């Protein structure tokens, strides 16, 4: 079976859970995969580039996918999990609007062929979001790596934690603060919904 991010093996999930316990307090690093998957950044960059050549709008979609993942239990790839009555995928902010799952699966397959069972889907989302911004002419940043994939998808939490377009501005700012983000991040990620956010900065 093709390894994808949505349908993860139960064993891998268990291993990830133990790894999560082990590394919960350790720091992410930019060279986390430098020996286990040295070509990782090249592979992700190439696949994102292909996806954008096919459809430029995918850049915004991949950034949004990472953003919507991170607001629910951290950047743990849980937005990619299938199934369950209360999945993040089917939460109101995500259903029929989050897109790019198939691009993430393509990137994951390429990464798996180069280094199998090593790189988390959460890290792939983080790199793909950075590359999407960069390849659209935006700024670049160093992506810290070593995230473990979560195995809980919480649609209820997605409905409450993600900023809604009809939230008042102070609620949006508070939700960003809860995720460790500030006003600059509100403007970058949410400004397109709220012209008022642009006015106050
Ligand atoms: C990395 O990619 C280069 C070619 O781009 C290849 O020659 C090399 O074998 C790859 N390294 C690994 C560890 O896969
Ligand atoms: C989902 O999140 C809510 C709110 O934080 C929490 O009460 C609930 O227990 C969580 N459900 C799961 C399955 O983790
Ligand atoms: C938000 O945080 C970033 C990174 O730490 C910083 O560069 C920026 O100035 C901050 N913005 C505000 C409005 O505090």
UniProtKB/TrEMBL annotation:
GO biological process, alphabetically ordered: response to oxidative stress
Domain Plant heme peroxidase family profile positions: 27-193
Binding-site positions, heme b: 193
PROSITE patterns for this protein: PEROXIDASE_2, PEROXIDASE_4
Catalytic reaction annotation: 2 a phenolic donor + H2O2 = 2 a phenolic radical donor + 2 H2O
EC number: 1.11.1.7
The protein's enzyme class: oxidoreductase
Disulfide bonds: 37-115, 70-75
Function: Removal of H(2)O(2), oxidation of toxic reductants, biosynthesis and degradation of lignin, suberization, auxin catabolism, response to environmental stresses such as wounding, pathogen attack and oxidative stress. These functions might be dependent on each isozyme/isoform in each plant tissue.
Protein name: peroxidase
Species of origin: Vigna mungo (Black gram)
């Amino acid at each position: 079976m093709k390894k994808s991010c949505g349908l993860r093996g139960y064993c891998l999930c268990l291993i990830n859970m133990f790894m999560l316990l082990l590394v919960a307090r350790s720091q992410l690093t930019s060279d986390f995969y430098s020996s286990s998957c040295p070509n990782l950044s090249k592979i992700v960059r190439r696949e994102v580039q292909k996806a954008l050549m096919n459809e430029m709008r995918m850049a915004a979609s991949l950034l949004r996918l990472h953003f919507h993942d991170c607001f629910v239990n951290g950047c743990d790839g849980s937005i990619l999990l299938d199934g369950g009555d209360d999945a993040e995928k089917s939460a109101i902010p995500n259903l029929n609007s989050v897109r790019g799952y198939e691009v993430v699966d393509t990137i994951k397959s390429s990464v798996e062929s180069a280094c199998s069972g090593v790189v988390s889907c959460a890290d792939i989302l983080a790199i793909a979001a950075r590359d999407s911004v960069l390849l659209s002419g935006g700024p670049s940043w160093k992506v810290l790596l070593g995230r473990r994939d979560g195995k809980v998808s919480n649609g209820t939490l997605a409905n409450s934690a993600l900023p809604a377009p009809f939230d008042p501005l102070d609620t949006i700012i508070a939700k960003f603060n809860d995720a460790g983000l500030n006003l600059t991040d509100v403007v970058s990620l949410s400004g397109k919904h709220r012209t008022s956010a642009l006015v106050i900065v």
